[in-house]
Amino acid sequence: MILCLDVGNTNVFGGVWKGDKITLRFRYASKNTHTSDQTGLFLRQVLRENGLDPTQIKQISICSVVPNLDYSLRAACRKYFSIDPFFLQAGVKTGLKIQTHNPQEVGADLIATAIAAVNFYPKKNLIIIDMGTATTLCAITADKRYLGGSIMPGIRIAMESLQSGTAKLPTVEILEPKAAIGRNTVDSIQSGLYFSHLGAIRELCANFTKEAFHNEKPVIVATGGFSYLFQEAKVYDIILPDLVLDGLRLALQLNYEL
To answer: What does pLDDT average to over the chain?
Structure first.
């Protein structure tokens, strides 16, 4: 079995693969600093609680955008699984031609989702939308050229900044509003959050399609915790919730020829 960990700014999204089938998904908060013991004990416990034997984990694949957690993660894997984990980072095999100005600064999570997307849709132009703490979009050509993308605050960050930066506006539940015109403060905030994010995604996809693909429609893939919020808006072709975990599994195979 392979344990994959996507370490984000808000959560660690984890999964366990048996072959090419995912058998477990879990999340835990990454905002607080965790010691290697806390991390290792949690990972072993979550496996056991879901009927999996921690000793059957043979490989661990990690992508991280939180550098201060990397040492503890590596130490936890060594101490509690006797495994030196694979980190998806600059210098490893990805199968992509990264054509940004500085390839080393591209987030490991973005690379993982790109690896998985080109595996699902070979020889297709792609736009990948990842809706997590930040909302990111990236463009990948049919010949696997990673062109770059766009980063904007995620919808939860937008809500929190609105609440913290104003005197009277409350925190609201993030959901699809019934109408654009809100008849009270809560409805108005929900409308602003939803439709501003939706409009930004539509505008960016249109510009990506024009700039990268000469107006030839790409396959638009969505992933991340908030992707289902916009499912009915038809701004993307498919939601693949495990895209980053699949990319971590595939990156491990590329580098270790499993």
So the answer is: 94
